[in-house]
Known about the structure:
The chain has 11 helices and 2 strands. It has helices spanning 2-35, 42-58, 63-86, 94-116, 141-163, 165-175, 177-182, 187-209, 220-234, 239-259, 265-279; strands at residues 131-134, 137-140. The protein is globular, with a radius of gyration of 19 Å. The protein starts with a helix and ends in a 13-residue tail after the last helix.
Amino acid sequence: MYELTYVTQVIFSGITSGAVYTLVALSLVLVYNVTKNLNFAQGEFSVLGILVVLSTVRAGLSLWAGVLLAVAVVAIVAFLQERLVMEPLGGAADAVKLVGTLAVVFLMQSFFMNLWGKEAYTLPHFSSRQVLELSGATLPVQSLWVMGTGVAVIILIYLFLNVTVYGKALRACSENKMASMLVGIDVEAMTRLTYALSGVMGAIGGIVFAPLVMVNFGTGLMFTLKGFMAAILGGLGDIRGAIVGGVLLGLVEAFSAGYISAHFADSISLGLLLIFLVFRPTGVLGGKISES
């Protein structure tokens, strides 16, 4: 019975982390599909959202007011990244664009450190009840918020991309930008929308996860790394793969920490990533790589 209880807690922990990794991976994949750029600043939007909520709560406003404000602020900052950094680099080499996103990372981290300091922060739990007893296992209620939010965002993104006019325009841009322009789609506007949407998804993932962890000005790179790992494991460019990769990465980390050592969890995850890169570079759901 104890072993079953422990396994339940490990799985619960893995799916919780996996839900956050999925949201960050989805953000990265969305930008990559439309622009073919890898945005290393993605994780900074998660931290920015957390810190905006933190400041709002400290100012005496409600947690939910902070969430709404954070979503608005992050959407604007992500939009500005595309408008002021990525758009001017539109004709540059991929390596130059990558350096551009890294410059945004260091700029935002410097801003976080100067405004909020170097200490680590956490957010209050979303519910007054913090733990839930399930078959003898003690599970954080906040984990339910994380998983529920992850599922809700995935459903909303699916509906947005497949039902709305703007979502269909984004999909068209990801398939063929030239053809999209020929049929009257404003590709530049869709690109800016993509960055804003990806920033909001990253912020939401960070905000719901923050009550369970400690974050500081430099945590964004961790979010980005985990998101990239999840996206690659599932198949970079595949939205379904981002979901599979995020959950897989979360479970691998949880079982590694639970049955081996928390100190080796990241090493084992990186080892799994290397195995995929060598033997299955297209990810879990990817097809065969063409010779071209």
